[in-house]
Amino acid sequence: MEEESTSHATAESHPRDRIKLNVGGKLFETTLSTIRSGGPDSLLFALSNRASNDPNPVFIDRDPEIFSVLLSLLRTNHLPSTAHRFSKQELADEALFYGIDSHLRSASAPPPFSGIDASIIGSIRPASEGLPSAFTAADNGSVWIAHGGQVSSYDWNLLHAGTFRTHLDDIDSICRVWPEIAAVGSQSDAGLHFYDFSGSRHVGSIQWNDPSDPRIFKARVNAITASENSVFASFDCPHRENCILEVDKTKIEVVSQLGRQSGNQAKHMVPGRLTFVPATGVLVGSAVTGGAFGYSGYIRLWDPRSGEVVWETNEPGAGRSSRFGDSFAAVDVDVEGLALFKLCSKSGDLGMADMRRLGDDPWIYLKEKNPSLVVSNGGGGGEGSSSMVVSCYRGQVFVGRDGELEVWSRVRRQQEEEKEKEKERNVERGREGGEGLFRRNFVNKREDSERGAIKKIEGGGDRLFVSREGVEGIEVWESSHSASVISVL
């Protein structure tokens, strides 16, 4: 027989405040307050309302061992050590049956994500066509993975929730538009397409058409992002004509067209990355190309309300006075911190620009002054690097150089205040040395870096998801529960 976790509580509780449950032939006794803590919509709460004069225990035809784990969860808000005897799927199924899945989700959630304490806890590998072509993560730590022409969904517990096949042969970009709606695009097939996970069905398509211009045909999607009401997708055609279409999320209809250009020069390429910034209402687009003569590209900010460009920089070209010849190889946006980040192709330095004070040359460069931590050109940074990726998440900037992963984290607030004067001096003497605000750390171990070149990095919930070139599945990175007591300085 199971009893209340503390003898004091058992001694003080009145018999009318207790309830007996027979789960799968095993007798449990606990307090009404414990099983009611599952919430008014839970099965256990409903069972607690039975007549108190009924001497027979409530019978539930379920696994008693897993129920013991869940009962302990209701008592302490933590999973007991015995939970490890069961799979995530078994615990999730039973918690859903009892209506306490939110409690299990809270207890199973990883600790607050800290890049400097992150490590690989596993990988997600779709059963078929395991090489991921694109993926998108959600705020609850779930992720959707495109592989070939299919999309697989994995829930907050990283359990497979479903897979549907699209009409596309390959999916190169994916965006979560609604909780169950995905917008997908392919560079081998025309159009932006919307699919409903709940019904595994196609719900709409958007094509870029212009009857007055015969060059506009078979327009393919290169990048997708979404705001509260709209989806933005960059299209290009075989003749390199390109633009960004704003699509109404509810009606799946084109609202406006932004940034139409010819695409015959680097500064007119189709944006390969789009990010909407809710705080300012601007759309950030960037394009990067690399070749025998180095990298070139642009960063551009549009105001969707007016359709006008509000700021741009082209490299090589305008806005590069302090770094001529060191064009960026990767770009991302810190949406919460309102900052742009670029990774320089030759030096490997990380440049930061405050979106509230953009000008001709707004960049501050975060340089590593500890010689032992500088990455050599042959080992994942600088001109010798074949793969460079930058991704911003929760005030941290993650950088992938070939197979190596590093994080630039903001120092603690009090230290930011102490170094404010140092930052001002750095700006005055040429916008160098932004390390007064950020600290660099290497995230991966040597065996991690040998897994393959990093292709994409994206955060979701308290997790970081990483894909690598030619490697099946998506790596899942989490912080350890001891992260809060580890000094980062």
TrEMBL record:
One Pfam entry name: BTB_2
All residue ranges annotated as the At2g24240-like C-terminal beta-propeller domain in the record: 133-409
Coiled-coil residues: none
GO biological process terms, semicolon-separated: protein homooligomerization
InterPro entries according to UniProt: BACURD1-3 (IPR045068), Beta_prop_At2g24240 (IPR057441), SKP1/BTB/POZ_sf (IPR011333), T1-type_BTB (IPR003131)
Domain (Potassium channel tetramerisation-type BTB) ranges: 19-103
Cross-referenced PANTHER family: BTB/POZ DOMAIN-CONTAINING ADAPTER FOR CUL3-MEDIATED RHOA DEGRADATION PROTEIN FAMILY MEMBER, RE57120P
Protein name as annotated: BTB/POZ domain-containing protein
Organism (species): Crotalaria pallida (Smooth rattlebox)
